[in-house]
């Protein structure tokens, strides 16, 4: 898709993916190889689950290639360490998802909607019903 759009139109393309299903990392890499102009990532300590793929993983993957970002992995680790501490302060606001959730490949609930859904279930004291709700989504 990226290469076809770039062939037909003079536009800059930027790819935004959530890491919920475990497919975002692959999508970003393939899009970069196809000529996308930019991608969204997040520092590792704030990445994955409902967020974006980890910046450091993509930087390491692209190092030494024609797509090398030039970013310093050691500086990124310092940033990640800082945000690991910040994240602890907001633990109460984190969703249920730990790691990837392949059910979303079937339910196709976008990351932003999934976090809202969890929040609404929590407000109704029904956070334990997430699995049942996802099962109802075609």
Helix and strand topology:
Blueprint: H1 2-8, E1 14-15, H2 24-34, E2 38-39, H3 55-62, H4 73-89, H5 103-107, H6 111-123, H7 130-136
Parallel strand pairs: 1-2
Task: Give an overview of the whole structure.
- It is a single chain.
- With 138 residues, the chain is mainly alpha-helical.
- It is 49% helix and 3% strand.
- The protein has a two-stranded parallel ribbon.
- It starts with a helix and ends with a helix.
- It has one domain.
Structural features:
7 helices, single chain, 138 residues, two-stranded parallel sheet, flat, mainly alpha, 3% strand
Question: What's this model, at a glance?
Answer:
GO terms for molecular function: pyruvate carboxylase activity. With 138 residues, this protein is mainly alpha-helical.
Any low-confidence stretches, pLDDT <50, length ≥5? Answer: none
Dominant shape? flat
Question: Overall mean pLDDT score?
Answer: 92
Number of helical elements: 7
Q: Radius of gyration over alpha carbons?
A: 17 Å
């Amino acid at each position: 898709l990226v290469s076809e759009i770039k062939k037909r139109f003079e536009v800059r393309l930027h790819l935004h993916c959530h890491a919920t299903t475990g497919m975002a990392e692959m999508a970003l890499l393939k899009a970069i190889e196809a000529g996308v102009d930019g991608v969204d990532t997040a520092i590792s300590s704030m990445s994955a689950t409902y967020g974006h793929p980890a910046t450091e993983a993509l930087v390491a993957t692209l190092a030494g290639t024609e797509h090398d970002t030039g970013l310093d992995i050691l500086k990124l680790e310092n940033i990640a360490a800082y945000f690991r501490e910040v994240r602890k302060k907001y633990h109460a606001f984190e969703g249920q998802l730990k790691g990837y959730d392949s059910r979303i490949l079937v339910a196709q609930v976008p990351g932003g909607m999934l976090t809202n859904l969890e929040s609404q279930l929590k407000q109704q004291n029904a956070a334990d019903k997430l699995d049942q709700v996802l099962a109802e989504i075609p």
